[in-house]
Structures are given as structure tokens and as C-alpha cells.
Amino acid sequence: MKKVYGSAAEALDGLLFDGMFIAAGGFGLCGIPELLIAAIKEAGTKDLTIASNNAGVDGFGLGVLLATRQVKKMISSYVGENAEFMRQYLSGELELEFNPQGTLAERMRAGGAGIPGFYTATGVGTVIAEGKEHHVFDGRTYILERGIVADLSIVKAWKADPSGNLVFRKTARNFNVPAATCGKVCVVEVEEIVPLGSLDPDTIHLPGIYVHRIIQGPHEKRIEQRTVRKKEAV
Amino acid sequence: MPWDRNQMAARAAQELRDGWYVNLGIGIPTLVANYIPEGVSVTLQSENGMLGMGPFPFEGEEDPDLINAGKQTITELPQTAYFDSAQSFAMIRGGKIAMAILGGMEVSEEGDLANWMIPGKLVKGMGGAMDLVAGVGRVVVVMDHTSKHGESKVLHKCSLPLTGKGVVNRIITNLGVLDVVPGGLKIVECADGVTEAELRAATEATIVG
Q: Nearest-CA distance from A113 to chain B in Å?
């Protein structure tokens, strides 16, 4: 079965519907599926629930879908850098479910691994634990968190081969791996599709079994906080 | 004179032990990396998926694929390893990180920490803070002892929503160092030029010993 598609719009054809649940990779603006986000904007799919660690910035990343009011609910750990997000949230137009970052990552991993729930000590004694089942193991209290299974995963990797094997680059791997595994369908955008056999099987970060459709594209890869140091005179 | 931000960071760096894997929070904790004592080798974890975090890049060498948890551009070191977010928090939750040094808004005498939201103000989210305080071996909080209005931030009970309950081991403030012990807080040391009486007066929490 052919996994390589010609464009983001083609790769998403037949997968989008109003009210759907999408899991997105990325951390801040690092390793975000920017081409697929743009294509979802073009498609106009509405009432989306999106599980993503962050919500982009105004005009880039998931901020693009917030600007067009396509998002009904976000499941995130940190949403600081987005004025439009805050405006919609404070006016009640947008639902927000805060998840601790590790709990969100593990919810995706568990969902993709066929595990419907798991116990964690994260959030015990905080608002996060309210309404959740508590259980004591070996004298310590844990809360039950649910695995996430999304209708669609949108992911950014560095390289793919035509069978869908993926390699990520540096910290751009982040949520892309757990997000990829928790979708019923996973669409991936990469910087380069390389010939079959050119990736060392020992260095593949995510095997192609998790990947259903692939596109290659030019990426902007915007930097959120440019921090540098001066070269010291030797 | 109370400690300034850099002196607090330098004091916090004295908590580090050779061979430890450590996570540094945003703000003053980030400065701790500048004061790691000679002969102490620590590996810094960045919870977005990296062990062995290096300094900021030289101008022109920034890489959009290489950032820390504060979304700042950084560099790698010879011992650097990358991994995904699920594995990153598996090592945090699994107790593999020896210590986290974090900022705080309030700490209670029972070691409760509040550092993620102020009701009625802009809520940005807890990020990885709840996972860190629940998972790492030791939690050190670095913060100012009092608010801008002079109210103690070291309290009987936190008034703000908690990040974790009973999670803090040691508090380093501009006035000194306190440990969370059964029954309250124990003064470990006072900042240079700060008397124990001044430290006690600025602390609402019960001080024992």
C-alpha cells in the first residue's frame, strides 16, 4: 500500500470531519506539523478537540486554527504564548483541559499501546486529582489517568522512508512519537523522504507500522526564543 | 544583605553532587548552571527530551530543532542523548532524576508547593512541574522569601492551587536555607548578613529546632 502522498491536502483527504479528536506532535514551535496544520485550516474542519502540549503562537502552529475558530477544546500542559488563545479561553469560546506534561505524554503512549488507564503520583493533592480514582500502592497514593486514542495523529519527523519508518532530529522528537502512536490514523510530514533501505534499521525512532500517510515539504521551522552567547575573545 | 538572584543560584548549586542527573526550572534555577562547583559533574535534563544540555549557541549557530523546556535555543554536549516526551517523563516519574531545582510562589511547612497558577490571573499551565515534583528524588525550591508587599511566601498553608503536596525537601530564599522536617521547617543557614531573628520574622511557617 502506498503511503507517500503528494501534498498535505491529499494526505488528509477523507480523514477530516467536524468534531474530531486530533493528537498533535511538537513542543512549543519545535517539531510541529506545520504543513498539516495549514491544510486543516484550508479544509475548514470545525469543532476540533486537539491534544497537544502547547497551542502555538498567534499566527503560527496551532495558533492558526485558533484564529479561524476551528478548535473547540485543547488538551495541553502549557499555553502561555498565545494572546488569541487567552482571549477565546477567557471569553468562554474555547474549552481547555490542563494535563501535566508527563501525564499528557503518557496518556498518548498508553492509548497507542492499548492501555486504557494508568496510575500516576503526578497531581495527587492538586486540582488535577479532583474526581479521579485514587489508589494506594505500597503506601503511596496514585490517581488513575486515561489513555488517549485520537481519530487522527498529525506528526512532524525529519526523515521517512516510503514504508513509514521515521527518524527525528534532536529535541524535535518530543511529543511526536507518543502522538503518532495514539491515532487511529497517523499522517506524518517530513523534511525528506529517503529511498527504501537507506535508513539503518537500528537507528529508526518510530517503525512504519504506526505511520499511514507521509508527505514531504519545505518547513519554516520558526524559533520561539532565540538565545545566544557571545564568542569570547581568545 | 539578603542574597541576590545570582547568590541564590550559587547557593542552590552547592546542592549538586557529582554524577547526578538534574532538572533545572525556569528563572533563577536556570542560573544554577553557571555555578556548578569545580569537580562536580552533573548532567542537566530538559524535559522536552534531552539529557546533557549545553549552553546557548553562538550567534548564527541557533538550531530550531534544539531547544530547552523554556523554548530557548541551546546546544548539545558530547554526552547528550535525545528521546521523546513519554520517555522523558518516564525517567522523571521513575525517580531516575536525582534532583529538581524549581522556582516557587508559595511553600508550606509541610512541603506543599504552589508555583503554577494565580486564580483570576492569566493561567498558562503547569507544564512539567507537577510531574517533576512527584517524581524526582529531591526537590529544592529557590524563591524570594517574601512578596513585593513584604508578605511571607513561606507559609503554614499555601493559599494558591498546589503543584504538589508534601514534595519540597529544601527551600533556598534570599534570606537563607530551610529544610522541611517533621513538625515544620528547620533553619539550615542564614544568608550573609541576615540574622536568624530576621529570617524568623519573615517566615509565617512554623520553625522547629
A: 12
